[in-house]
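This part of the workshop introduces the protein records we will be handling. As an example, a complete record with its sequence and its structure tokens follows.
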Amino acid sequence: MSLKDRLKAQIAAEGPLTVAQYMTACLHDPQDGYYAARPARRPVLGEDGDFITAPLVSQMFGELIGLWAVEAWSRLGRPARFRLVEAGPGDGTLMSDLLRAARLAPDFLAAADLWLIETSAPLRARQAQALAGLAPSPRWADGLGEVPGGAPLILVANELLDCLPVRQFVRDAGGWAERMVGLGPDGELAFGLRKVPAPRIGAAPPVGAVLEISAAQAAFGAELGARLAADGGAALLIDYGRDQPDVGDTLQALRRHRKESPLASPGEADLTVHADFPAVRAAAEAAGAASAILAQAGFLERLGVRQRAEALARARPDRAATVARQLARLTEADQMGVLFKVAAFWSPPAAVPPAFEDV
């Protein structure tokens, strides 16, 4: 029985699902979830897959993150041991590029205790393949809580928050209703509304507005902030989303780089939402961390992405046009440059991480 049929049967027996419950089932169902599927149906990333991430656009992205990590480690006082962590490592490309760039600082690599936070068995296998032969060797964890404490943390996460589930609330003339996934008159999956008490927010948005609240995103921010406050360190969360509180329906399903209805094919398409950086930052700061945020273009510019692109073009003139396209993809306002944000987190009174000194 397909995941769609199992969800329909569950709804018929137990009632509608929240959007958050539906997202969790679609992405992480042990048998048929998008990220937990059997190897034959593993997520496919890149131009020939369902979606592409910045590390797959260009090596420049991961290399600059690697140099950022080395400088962040230096500003922490060059600790003799620290946890180097990537949450949601995809196919391992970002960490592979990071470690290659970090070869310029052998002491950094010698001090790093590498951990990858990944719940997908197929992706763990791809990460192991991508990092085979590189030092330090990785270990895996299902969550940040499984990564040992007692040492400073340098964490990076690219497109992690957008996979964490949200609940959706719709403002109508009578108050608020929660968007639910139920069954339509034809017995197929359909969105519906259930009246609920008003969410705890500031000024009420206009009628028809959709408010998304992600307890999972906020919880990750709180856990990260508490870890940084306890052990010291710095972190980068990179994702598409908003840097100011706002409303809007951002739930989407992607398959083969095309959008489809989120209800069309549970487990077969990637479901994502915009990262709620204000909520994540607030949770981290409440736990004791400091934070700042930049658009991806500004962050990469401050790290020298244009100079790196020029160097690559000089080294390989035959690839100059390709490098120029990659640079545009990462930094142009109508591509990844503005929609994608980079949030930094650190533990005061440690020095502000690179690129965020005057933010």
User: Anything to note?
Assistant: The chain has one domain: 3-346. The chain has a mean pLDDT of 94.
